[in-house]
Amino acid sequence: MSGLEQLYQQIIMDHSKSPHGYGLTEGDVTSHQRNPVCGDEVTLALRWSADGTRVEEVAWEGSGCSISQASASLFATLAAEDADAGNAWTPDDLQAFIDEFREALRSRGQIPLDEERFGDAAALSGVSKFVARVKCAMLAWVAAEDLLTRRAAEA
Ligand code: ZN
């Protein structure tokens, strides 16, 4: 295993052990996603700015394998870091992240996640070599996409 792969594995372990963004509240609009193959579950909420234009926080709860839980945690961390930096996501920004993530994860190791954009979540790049685990890593991102789609339908 290369040094980079070891670092990535450590990041995934850390996030599965002490997840970020964990905890939903009553007012959250959530999407519940299951990966029956692995037994993973993620319920995720996007918390929008007061004017409803930007994602200020990603919150979630779930259970399952370390990849599914670490991916949700890394997704929440990425949202928080961008919001803290003054770059809270618009719906288009979020959709772009989801599309890039999906493309990389389905690439069977051909397209790594861009570390400049994805930060620690780039640690999930290696999952794309394991086709059976791609759904685990996608779960939180699929939940976010579901929320975006529902939101667009209501607007
Ligand atoms: Zn899993």
UniProtKB/TrEMBL annotation:
<protein>
    <submittedName>
        <fullName>Nitrogen fixation NifU-like protein</fullName>
    </submittedName>
</protein>
<dbReference type="GO" id="GO:0016226">
    <property type="term" value="P:iron-sulfur cluster assembly"/>
</dbReference>
<dbReference type="Pfam" id="PF01592">
    <property type="entry name" value="NifU_N"/>
</dbReference>
<dbReference type="GO" id="GO:0005506">
    <property type="term" value="F:iron ion binding"/>
</dbReference>
<dbReference type="GO" id="GO:0051536">
    <property type="term" value="F:iron-sulfur cluster binding"/>
</dbReference>
<dbReference type="InterPro" id="IPR002871">
    <property type="entry name" value="NIF_FeS_clus_asmbl_NifU_N"/>
</dbReference>
<feature type="domain" description="NIF system FeS cluster assembly NifU N-terminal">
    <location>
        <begin position="8"/>
        <end position="136"/>
    </location>
</feature>
